[in-house]
Amino acid sequence: MRYDSLLAVCVTLFPITISGDSNLSEPLSSQQILPNNFKPPQVFQNVNLLRNTNLEKGYVRETVNVVIENIDTKPQSEYYVPFSVDVIGNVGGFEVRDKKTPGPSFKTDLVEYDPYSPTQFFRTTLPQPLSPKSQLTLSITYHILSTLTPLPFKIGQNDKQYLHYAFSTYTPSAYPTLKQKTKLKFPTPEVPDAIGGSPERQGSTFTYGPYNDLVPAGALEPASVRYEFTKPVIHATLLERDIEVSHWGGNLATEERYWLTNQGAHLKANFNRVQWAASQYYKPATSALRELNVPLKVGSLNPYFTDDIGNVSTSRFRSNKREANLELKPRYPVFGGWKYSFRIGWDADLASFLRVLKNAQGGHVLKVPFLEGPRMGEGVSYGKVELQVILPEGAKNVKFETEVPLVRVEETVRRTFMDTVGRTTLKLTAMNVADEARDKPLIVTYDYPFSAAFRKPVTIFLGIVAVFVTAWGIGRLDASIGKQK
Fold first, then answer.
1. Based on CB atoms within 10 Å of each CB, which residue in 16, 104, 199, 438 is the most buried?
2. Nearest to 210 by CA among 174, 178, 244, 247
3. Strand 154-155 relative to strand 266-267: parallel, antiparallel, unpaired?
4. Would you state the pLDDT for residue 418?
5. pLDDT digits 0-9 by tens, 202-226
């Protein structure tokens, strides 16, 4: 891999450092360039390691619980986690926490020591240096997108779909491991192929190990599995999400624009509309995407669903005191390799999301979900998410806080109808996001002085006065051709 291409991937994939003056959170720092002869210091050993790999969705979710021990003579605070260079570009949601003590995640960043190396590292900084011979239990979680491949690549319209996943029965580690075990959880017990290792099969779970012998740092034991997954592999290459705050209307307007694709197996023959219509009477399992379920906040109203052609009538909105649900059906079933772009939007009562602070600056606190969108059993992954929070005209001193790692933060101005200076807009960009981010909030604080609330009505009033004055002035003009008497 060339240096320039690797650097471009790293810069766009991993978070940048943001000044604390404009952000309440502490985002992950940017990529750190280390000497090309760098190797992770062998100051730790993994006493006991358990890796859980979940394949029940269309992307890989991994949780590694490991007991680490400082084997050095000095306190140590930096722990490295390796990834192969062809995987690290698809890693998202990387978090490290203390397994036994609930609290915020530890600071992590990406380090590069050789652009041509097949291995790159995440570096985790422990909140307190670990003293010699002391132990700490870490919980490392992350997901890997676009790493599952359909096998066979082409299938019939009503055939079962199988996905292939390649991995190592030894958990990749920068340190020696004394004891370890790997568990794989499949969506169904149907796993026709399992190459490498000698797994213990129990229902839809495979267990590799335990391996009680010392495994040196960097050791790998290749293995692969092929399992049944007759569901769509839903991936949004881009999601643009706009949240517009209106103080005068007391409304929170949300619009989401999706560029969706199905990463499942392609059709080996042309699509048969008659065969598809006949199968809808008994609705068998299919690898095609035929509907999307979008849960909304209670009290949401005025939803809409459009695509490149126009309004899509195949949707249903159900709302009551306990739930609000938007059910979408695309114009056509989205099979493997097919794409579908659309937009949805809805309104909500601003009072449910906004709190006013009692201070002289007119402080406001807005709490909204970072991600909403479809909630599907097979999961939804997002290659890139661009979130814009459009605040009222005159908002200033904008700060925000979120647990979602960001790659870019911008504060711009958007001018709309009857605006004077424009609306302050906070734009956040994230990469490799999974639908699990639905539960993570975005908190935005800003000052909105009392005088700024009258900017719009004063502008409208002056505009109307200007129209009448202009009309009066034109009416007073003498446009006659004849000579005045």
1. 199
2. 178
3. parallel
4. 65
5. 999 999 989 999 999 989 999 999 9
Q: How many Å separate Cα 242 from the centre of its chain?
A: 15
The pLDDT of residue 12 is above 80: no
Taking the model in full, what pTM does it have?
0.85
Residue 24 pLDDT exceeds 60 = no
| 332 CB-near residues (< 8 Å, 6+ apart) | 338, 340
From residue 39, give the alpha-carbon distance in Å to each of 28, 35, 106.
Answer: 22, 9, 22
The mean per-residue pLDDT over the stretch 438-456 comes to 80
pLDDT exceeds 80 at position 298? yes
DSSP of 354-380: EEE--STT-EEEEEEES--S---TT-E
Query: How many of the other CB atoms lie within 10 Å of CB of 73?
Result: 9
| Cβ burial, residue 303 (10 Å; 0-12/13-18/19+) | buried
Q: How confident is the model at residue 422 (pLDDT cuts 50, 70, 90)?
A: confident
DSSP class per residue in 154-177:
EE-TTS--EEEEEEESSPP-SS-B
Residues 6+ positions from 451 with CB-CB distance below 8 Å: 394
Q: Alpha-carbon Rg of the chain, whole angstroms?
A: 28
Distance CA 47, CA 394 (A): 56
Contact predicate 63/141, CB 8 Å: yes
